[in-house]
Amino acid sequence: xxxxxxxxxxxxxxxxxxxxxxxxxxxxxxxxxxxxxxxxxxxxxxxxxxxxxxxxxxxxxxxxxxxxxxxxxxxxxxxxxxxxxxxxxxxxxxxxxxxxxxxxxxxxxxxxxxxxxxxxxxxxxxxxxxxxxxxxxxxxxxxxxxxxxxxxxxxxxxxxxxxxxxxxxxx
Amino acid sequence: xxxxxxxxxxxxxxxxxxxxxxxxxxxxxxxxxxxxxxxxxxxxxxxxxxxxxxxxxxxxxxxxxxxxxxxxxxxxxxxxxxxxxxxxxxxxxxxxxxxxxxxxxxxxxxxxxxxxxxxxxxxxxxxxxxxxxxxxxxxxxxxxxxxxxxxxxxxxxxxxxxxxxxxxxxxxxxxxxxxxxxxxxxxxxxxxxxxxxxxxxxxxxxxxxxxxxxxxxxxxxxxxxxxxxxxxxxxxxxxxxxxxxxxxxxxxxxxxxxxxxxxxxxxxxxxxxxxxxxxxxxxxxxxxxxxxxxxxxxxxxxxxxxxxxxxxxxxxxxxxxxxxxxxxxxxxxxxxxxxxxxxxxxxxxxxxxxxxxxxxxxxxxxxxxxxxxxxxxxxxxxxxxxxxxxxxxxxxxxxxxxxxxxxxxxxxxxxxxxxxxxxxxxxxxxxxxxxxxxxxxxxxxxxxxxxxxxxxxxxxxxxxxxxxxxxxxxxxxxxxxxxxxxxxxxxxxxxxxxxxxxxxxxxxxxxxxxxxxxxxxxxxxxxxxxxxxxxxxxxxxxxxxxxxxxxxxxxxxxxxxxxxxxxxxxxxxxxxxxxxxxxxxxxxxxxxxxxxxxxxxxxxxxxxxxxxxxxxxxxxxxxxx
Amino acid sequence: xxxxxxxxxxxxxxxxxxxxxxxxxxxxxxxxxxxxxxxxxxxxxxxxxxxxxxxxxxxxxxxxxxxxxxxxxxxxxxxxxxxxxxxxxxxxxxxxxxxxxxxxxxxxxxxxxxxxxxxxxxx
Lengths: 171, 625, 123
Description:
The structure holds three protein chains of three kinds. Chain B is of the alpha+beta class. Chain B contains 18 helices and ten strands. In chain B, α9 runs antiparallel to α10 (243-268), α9 (201-232) packs antiparallel against α18 (600-624) and α13 packs antiparallel against α14. The longest helix of chain B has 33 residues, at 345-377. Chain C folds into two domains: 25-84, Orthogonal Bundle (Helicase, Ruva Protein, domain 3); 88-115. The chains are: A alpha/beta, B alpha+beta, C mainly alpha. Chains B and C meet through α13 and α14 of B and α1 and α5 of C.
């Protein structure tokens, strides 16, 4: 067999096995945190307490916005809520809450009990608007800038580290 | 106590393997064709020790000895005894013991049953096989030891995943392992053949039956896996192109190619190196499959709990096997003298191999491609049924035609059956297909082609049966296996075309109607069982005059805390009714999935008939030798 | 000559029949979308919260007139390529789609090379 054929076969196997070795260290759990650097979609959600709509253009006046998807029936949402309350004290960032697949009474009760960090409270009762943002579980939060580009996606409850990260960004 | 005994037996096994290698090596240096008795005895003792070790582990599961990590992680004292036993091999560590049992038993039996072959070939096979055995024993002892002790001893175990608490767990792994782990023996034999230059036809006869046996069990193992998925997963399907399913299919393609090629090799002494490559490929694919499944590198519904160190060990072992085989092949490769006629049987067997390699490449590529995109471009992609179906089904159409024509070609000569006869058969197939469209319904062009070519294969096999019965040269094994494959494709095609699937959200008391069906949600009951609670729904399916009651369940297990959905299946010769019920969060509606799946039982039956074809060939070979 | 025309006509007819059959079927699409919070199930087979929302969105997109491919694009734009079971036709996946048939053709070449050919035995 010619030397070159042997060399090609050897290197193909070497390549495949190397990729396997490297692949072992990768995390197989999937998340959407890589779906960033794009502009947020056109969306329309109604306010929690009113019938009017809140849409993409309403966000342009903020320097930074954190869109937080939550629900009263979601246990981790309770855990992250204090972080949101702390964040609501920060200037330069507005927090928009999207109440996901929930009932108005339960949502209001939740906010009465734990505090309302939201500058704007909206709702998405059937979850369809949240799909436009690529939401697949709650809580999730999306940090966007003035140009409405997604800076970071937080999947799961916001941690103290996330709070520091956000504080850094919005300086 | 059990832990120490188990570890002791494992160490004894390693010592035995090393002794066998040492003694075999010594024996090789002696003249004559005699293998000393102690090598046989040691091999027998080796198998016995490993089996005792395995039974020790089973005993630990039966008495719920939670001082062993494996028993703690995978069992519970309240489990029914049947699942305590079968749970032994329902986990990574325990199933590795099953690997070693098969490796050692096949090692011993191959030695015993090949008395008419050169000593150097038999001993080299034994040595290579024992190197594999030692590799696995070290893996078990150092990384995945079922006898690993736990301290302090917990009072109760974590329990066995309820999906695994199924009779199929008892037979699915053993069947599969007899298949792809059994292929280790002809891997070792191939290496031995290369080293000892044992390349005559007799080499073929030494491994022929082992290939048939492993292929038959592999087919059965895949069948049981599919049946289990059908009953247990609640999705109504039986094949999902899931990585673990593909891992069992890859060696199967290689085995099928192999036992066809070995016919040519035995008859005409052609394709020696290709046969060797296939022998090596089969077991390499088996270990690759085990790597993909147990390392956690791929996401799958079937994966064992994963641990990256396992992956590193198996991958290193796999790399050694691959590079060892490749280098040996490079060293020993000699170009062969081919002189093939276009329409000879040899060519058609090559065609079989050609298609098998195509299927193999497709399934392998689809399974590992996501690893490559993830590592190279940090992008996770999914490769699912749409890919495999789109690539494979059109090719199957042509493959079936070759399966029908090929076996009737003659050896060496450029002779062919009369085209007229085939034309008539094709016409018959098209006619039957048209009748199906006329009486039932229309379907896609691709489906038409598949049905027609499947019918072509079936009718051709019938023609072969009639003609060869008259001429008295009936090859029943081949006719049954090929015809059954045709039936398999036919039934899968018809099942796909005529399946009915409906999805409803229903409350108790509601009735949903569509076409000439009616589904009534009659009742909901809560029942208590030993290790779970069940919410049982009662549904009445009414289709014209045919009334059936189906009772799907939602099961709430406590150890471990899981929810499973048990489908209610009503099987008959013509169709299965399939109903699953699941609760919708924060609502008192239930989501009901109703499916009518025609001819399911015939799909299973076709695969069993394929295996019977293989076993018929095996028994005929055994009788002749 | 006539056979060529016949083949071309057959090809055109089969193509039009093929594409005419491609009626948009929500179940097909649901079967080709992965439930992100399940273990390998499709949106069709799963009834998790997520799956139910996606089913509604797919129905909406169909009524808005999107084709099957456009719906897959929409989903992979929002959730990444992992959500679609059919690998998207882009440069990264081109090797995946092309290689099997390339291998088939290559194999065919190998076999035809073996016909009536005498190789020299190497010593």
